[in-house]
Design brief:
Helix content is 66%, strand content 0%. It contains 3 helices and no strands. Keywords: Membrane, Transmembrane, Transmembrane helix. The chain crosses the membrane at residues 7-26. It comes from Chanos chanos (Milkfish).
Length: 67
């Protein structure tokens, strides 16, 4: 196997490993926003954010909210 092909395979494997790592962390939530909104509704039910969050900090109600 030539040196260039070996370097290409190593670099391609590294890129594939990084892509496989970032997919469930970054790309899946971006493409399935409604699923995550439903999960957050269930998880945040009955929680008063003012009791949990320290005073003076901005409260983010929906990280997926579009303007």
């Amino acid at each position: 196997m030539s040196s260039n092909r070996r370097i290409t395979l190593i670099f391609g494997g590294f890129v594939a490993a990084v892509a496989a790592t970032f997919y469930p962390i970054f790309f899946h939530p971006l493409t399935h926003k409604e699923d995550y909104k439903q999960v957050q509704k269930v998880n945040r039910a009955g929680i008063n954010q003012a009791d949990v969050q320290p005073a003076g900090l901005k409260i983010w109600s929906d990280p997926f909210k579009t303007k």
